[in-house]
Design goal:
Elements: H1 2-11, E1 13-16, E2 27-29, H2 32-39, H3 48-68, H4 70-75, H5 81-96, H6 110-113, H7 116-134
C-alpha cells in the first residue's frame, strides 16, 4: 500500500507552487528524483525493487477480485451513467486480462497451509485490513 501511494504521489507531484501575485499556476508532474529516492536499490538497501514487485503482485490480486466481482459491480445502481460506464470499462478490462493471478494455486498443499508462511500471510491481510480502516479519514497517514 505504501509503495502504491508513493508511486501515485511521485507521478502527480507539485513541482512548482502557484504564485497568485505573478499569475503563475501550480505546476504538477512526475518527480523522477523522488521516485528514485524511494525505490532505487542503492538508496533503499535493495528493498525498493522488492516493494515494486509487491505492488505489482497486489495489482494482479486486485484485478482478479474486480474480474470475479464484475457482474455484481455492473449490477449496482450508481445513479450516474458516466460512473456506470466507467465501472463497465474497468470490469471489462479486468475480465479480459489474460495474466490473472490464480488464487487456486495459493497454499494448495496441506504442508504449506500449516507452515509459518501461511500464518504470516494471514497476519499481513489483517494488518492491511486494519490500515484500510484507519484510512477512513481520507488522509494518508502512511506517506
Amino acid at each position: 500500500l505504501h509503495s502504491s501511494i508513493t508511486v501515485h504521489l511521485c507521478s502527480n507531484y507539485l513541482l512548482d507552487s502557484e504564485n497568485l501575485l505573478m499569475g503563475k499556476p501550480a505546476v504538477w508532474g512526475r518527480n523522477k528524483q523522488e521516485f528514485l529516492r524511494r525505490f532505487d536499490p542503492k538508496l533503499t538497501g535493495n528493498k525498493g525493487p522488492e516493494w515494486l514487485k509487491n505492488m505489482f503482485y497486489l495489482y494482479l490480486v486486485e484485478l482478479r477480485a474486480i474480474g470475479k466481482a464484475g457482474d455484481l459491480l455492473k449490477s449496482l445502481d450508481y445513479r450516474n451513467q458516466d460512473i456506470l460506464a466507467g465501472i463497465h470499462q474497468v470490469v471489462d478490462a479486468a475480465q479480459s486480462f489474460q495474466y490473472h493471478f490464480d488464487e487456486s494455486d495459493l497454499f494448495k498443499s496441506d504442508e504449506l497451509r500449516k507452515s509459518e508462511l501461511f500464518g504470516e500471510f494471514k497476519n499481513k491481510f489483517r494488518e492491511i485490513s486494519h490500515l484500510m480502516d484507519c484510512m477512513g479519514c481520507e488522509r494518508c497517514k502512511v506517506w
